[in-house]
## 1
Amino acid sequence: MISRRAFLSMAGASALASPMRVWGRAQSPPAIDAARLRRRLESLSTYGRPPGGTFASGVSRVAYSVADVTARAWMLEEIKSAGVAPRLDAAGNIYARLAGGEPNRPPILFGSHIDSVPGGGNFDGDLGVMAALEVIHAVQAAGLKTRHPLEFVLWAHEESTAFGKGTACSRIVAGDLKPGDLDQVWNGMRRADAIRRIGGDPDRIETVVRPKGSWHAYLELHIEQGGTLDRAKVPIGIVEGIVAIHRYDVVVEGFANHAGTTPMGERQDALVAASTLVLAVREIAASRQGRQVGTVGRLEVEPNSPNVIPGRVALSVEFRDLSEATLRELGEAVKARAAAIARDTKTTIALTLATTNPSAPAHAGVQDAIGRAADQLGLQTRRLPSGAGHDAQMIASLCPMGMIFVPSVGGISHSPRELTSWDDCARGANTLLGAVLELDRRDSV
Ligand code: GLV
Ligand code: MN
Ligand code: MN
């Protein structure tokens, strides 16, 4: 809960800056409802829960799955219960707007995603969405009329499990949609049909794109997903920037042959080549100074039978760093190693740069607003980069962007064991609320 002293200082500051503030002595100070935030997160966790599981079992709510579709339907009702009307865009992103006192001002946008990785946790994305809904509740409950409209957003398809593409629908909003993207097939499903499954309309996809300046600012509350805040016992992280991501689709072609009759020297084993490449990715990323990381997270072996030498392997190679130049160098290094491995194993290895996420610095003004909000709540802060990708990095090309992190216990994420204390969830949500109100006071961020 927000302290009385913090509230009085917020109310005092805004009384000078914001003529639209209308709450009086009889009304409550703006604060989120921590119990409702928890209740909603617990309810959301039932969508995609393993059979017979509990909250601690986490969720598999991959974009476009039944769990995702049903959770989104439930979310539409929750959004309505917050007193705002949900609106789907043609990509399946869900917006809901609370009118401001000065309607010609661009809205302040805030939200996150509810799709998960397979075997994911209960907080990645979910916390940011539910906290955003709390902001909508809290502003109304306090009888407050902001100057800017406030806009809640639930981004569709953030994780890169489906179609190997992450931040997929905020990406379209930012104008990154290439010819043929909607014809991609994953799990036997065309991407256009996947978008239809969640209520989007691929035939009108161009209407999703928003011009620069569409919003006053974008804010996203998220769990850190690393261990910096937890180790330092600092409740609020102010993100300085989000790493760039380069992801390659790799196909290794060997020759499928009988595992019992083909002598060792005559094999063209695609899995042996792929395995050597996996180790090369680790070595390339680890053997230079810096925070860059490299991962092979997906491997599909064909025909995947114990008595057949693998003839084909498809895999992903992903590098992340704040510097795009570093990512290009890592890409060149892995291509050179792949050529050498292909020669040694009598296979062919093709690498295609499948997706890139730009690195995105958080706007200094938004970082400052988050810092002030945390100060007013008496919460210690630390600035840090984000090693995870976020929809915020797409929206950063359209308006000033900032992110608030809260601690992930043990730095665990993309796992059912992902955990953030309920108190930290509430602290993060109140900081989001304070930052939204702080940005509302400013004519320019
Ligand atoms: C999203 O969670 C990512 O960093 O891949
Ligand atoms: Mn994630
Ligand atoms: Mn996330």
## 2
Amino acid sequence: MAGKVWFVGAGPGDPDLITVKGRKLLEQAGAILYAGSLVDQAATLFAPDDCEIRDSKDMTLEEMTAWLVDQTSRHGTVVRLQTGDPGLYGALIEMTRPLTAAGIEWSVVPGVSSAFASAAAAGETLTLPEVTQTVILTRVAGRTPMPEGEDLEALAAHRTTLCIFLSITLLHEVQRALRAAGWAEDAPIVVVQKASWPGEEKIIRGTLADIKKKCQEQKVGAQAMIIASPTLGAADWETLARSKLYDPSFSHRFRRSSVSE
Ligand code: SAH
């Protein structure tokens, strides 16, 4: 019987940030196809000795699916290991469709996205009561164009948290879009490179005006998350609207209000 392909989110880089389920699958995998340099450590750390491990860096999509299909004829568990969460900029559906067409079963195991690892590294929150309750995960157009209505300028007009992937080399374009949407020159921006990578993480804090210069000075030009948000720096604000979740006058499913209404 043909094996099954598991698309596993490896998390942002620190091998400890893969899920328990993902790790168990790696431990029983007969073959692992991992996505470039970002996740090789998890693959080699947790895979059995006789596991066939291959980097997909130089493979086309067709070669990757052919490799996965071939491996399922020999192994019960085949893992495609992807950075962060497989559902974000991971070409997931492009890979699952040929598997379905070949009659091969597949499933997805979610992972910790670099958006969340970057916020965690910087000690920032992506939402804050009465400031913003919305997070937009996006990118600026590179080789992949942005669908209509999704250009950064239009999204930034919402004044919500923006987690901008795949765009560190286009920081000038991020600046242009935020300015065009009316963000102030002193709006805070944080860039996190290699979030969660032991010994390699860099956190650059700046403003719309100076973030590009700071990133250049620190030589941050790849593998970085840009977070622009009205919540940034809230740890140091003098006043803060209180989260309803922990407000003593607010009852919810797990906790009764201590204040009578
Ligand atoms: N599926 C991944 C995203 C893949 S796209 C996820 O959920 O995180 C690749 C982009 O993700 C990079 O250009 C960068 O913007 C971001 N990225 C991936 N790993 C990162 C890390 N450890 N630190 C900061 N950004 C990272």
## 3
Amino acid sequence: MKRIGVLTSGGDSPGMNAAIRAVVRCGIDAGLEVWGIERGYEGLLDGELKLMDRSSVGDILHRGGTVLKTARSERFREDKWIDRAVEILQTFGIEGVVIIGGDGSLHGGLGLAKRGIKVMGLPGTIDNDLNYTDFTIGFDTAVSTVLEAISKIRDTSSSHDRTSVIEVMGRSCGDIALYSAIAGGAECVLIPEEEEDINKVCRKIIEGSNRGKLHSIIIKAEGTPTPSGELVKLIEERTGKETKLVVLSYLQRGGSPTLNDRMLATLCGAKAVEMLKDDFESKAIGTVDGHIVAYDLEEALNMPKRFDEDLYKLIDVLSK
Ligand code: F6P
């Protein structure tokens, strides 16, 4: 292996830059040529490749977003475009690619791997929805952002004796909501993994108010069935408490990565280069029980969903 590529794909996440930096610098240190592919698979298909050097990744470790830019690629779902991508990589003499992205992006990588390109998948998404790894790059920063928002919203909620519903991202995964609710001291959390019980939410608000609570914070994952606007109306009607909605949206995707995200991104990036250099098969790299792991790419993407039921139950206990 002489030349490798690196790309970021799908929704950006804080820590992607730290991962790019590690891949480029460890790659060069290992005697490889490292090519940056811009705008994910879209840029690959359009031939947007540039040779990286050590200084091209200077001053990016602490920055959110991705200097390589990113995109969601509809084209890459089709075999003919994956074939085309392989041709482009072959034209540049690139034999291995590090792909930093979420589930869809790593599935795209599997398409390349099945056509003979060596792929190292890094879990780059705020959603924490890749089953083979305990944490994804960007999740910790996104939850920290939500926690900061909860503190601010709590100040104003208690001054007005209000209920606040805070909608967080995560697609069909409730982890951002779950961890934010635990660490932010929310009264209730609504996540896609559990049946939605709006009456239970209302009961908790009323019981809390009867105990003298000045506010209630409800964290709602975006992937739950009832739209947030409707939920707020229902809560207001059933509890008689003024209820406000805050949708945190893209705020959760930006910002300087936390220590945990910088470490995870850097260690995964370094591991990816080590495995490419040693000519291993395509892998998905992540973290399990505090250790960096590398699983067979296809196996990793087919691992069953993990959900911590105990963490969910704990919220009820803590908010009594
Ligand atoms: O996958 C990351 C994520 O931020 C999800 O939480 C969210 O549902 C989605 O991306 C938003 O996607 P887009 O950037 O395409 O609007």
## 4
Amino acid sequence: MSTLGIVIMAGGRGTRLKSARPKVLHTVGGKLLLQHVIDAALTLAAPADIHVVIGHQADLVREAVGSTGVHFVDQPEQLGTGHALQMVKAAFLASGITPPDNLMVLSGDVPLIRPETLVTLWTTHQREGASMTILTAIPPSPQGYGRVLRQASASPRVSAIIEQKSLSAEQLAHPELIQEINSGIYVFHSTALFHCLGELKNDNSAGEFYLTDVAALLVKEGDPVVAVAADSVNEVLGANTISEMMHLDAAMRATTAQHHMANGVTIFRPDTVIIDSAVSIGPDTILEPFTQILGNTSIGKGCRIRSYSVIQDSTLGDNVLVRNGCILDNAKVGDGALLGPYAHLRPESRIGENAHVGNFVETKKTILGDGSKANHLSYLGDAVIGKGVNIGAGVITCNYDGVNKTVTTIGDNVFVGSNSTLVAPITLDDGSYVAASSCITEDLPAGALGIGRSRQTTKEGWATRRRAGLAASRSYENL
Ligand code: UD1
Ligand code: CA
């Protein structure tokens, strides 16, 4: 059985993006371009058999995807896709490791490629006994892509790939002459590829060593070069410009939304909703327009996420209502909880079952127990709050003294009156009660009342006398 290794070309500058970030570290569908391609490659090969060519801002790329365990091949100067493969050949020679019989070459900027299609490419390559098998497509516009010239229209055999920049005047004027494009994804017989790489020339308008020139070189040697078309055009589209990336992003998110709808999730106006690929959502959950569900988020059954909420890396139980305009980041929310409108759950917020976090309430690194309520205008930071607690409007945990963050601990069934400040570190034991507008600086034992404010003074008749005085002085001024 012949062996297969995978090369991912990710060294290029991405000049057309006009971005400070390397192209392969841009995201579509909430995932890095290169991560998409590595994930596809991992369905066919072990990390040690995947070789990622890096050049432009190589350190950033290495850091971003290093945890996948893939190999990296340096391409210090980026002299074209053919040169990228020359670096791979040199790396094999230098290491003394025998290359696999075949190399599948993927492009770091063609992210929608499906594993099934790579399997088709690989089986076609073996069946045809080819030296090079090219994955192709016929998109609505071939503009910008290399064109695949077949030896005869119905033949799988290819005679050459012609780069966009090398098209003749006639071919440019009549794009319908060659509609089939090169996806930049191939399988090569390694020996045949390595043999040809040394013969590549850079005497073209881009001054680059084109990997695509290998096709004609192999044909000249009498080697079989074949083409196989992908089932869908979208999966072979490249991401060379921001506009192309956003096109792929929309396509990917549309597919994701369809997948969730097929599993019983209602998505109103799915074209306005942004769902990342790793998200899971239970049936009977409803997403309203303009919601964003990002990162590693999991949402249970029967939830409703109202418009303009952004939920990132969070876990929601069943039957949670997230009202409009909530922001959740790395939060955990129990079954039946009610959030918002305009609640902000910052990292490490743990909201219990049937708990409420209402209007303009911010939580950070806080546990709010089952059935507890903080309905209005609060900041709860570094707090451990028990069950059945009522946090009145405007309550603030003072968790920061300018140097250290300290914890507020509140037992079960505590009532904290409105507009109170709890100066941490502090403990309010089970069933204790804080009078409204208190500044609490000392621990409260179970069942106690804490009042921390000055006593009210009432001056009988004062307001009436003042109003009368003001009215008199005004009538004097008007004389
Ligand atoms: C390439 C193909 C073109 C095909 C298109 C499909 C060549 C010469 N042309 O064109 O036929 O239709 O892909 O998307 O191959 N890279 C390196 N090192 C380099 C240059 C590029 O690693 O020196 C990497 C890039 O990071 C990128 C990939 O190779 O991930 C493709 O390079 P790019 O410049 O985007 O090629 P295209 O012009 O799109
Ligand atoms: Ca490209």
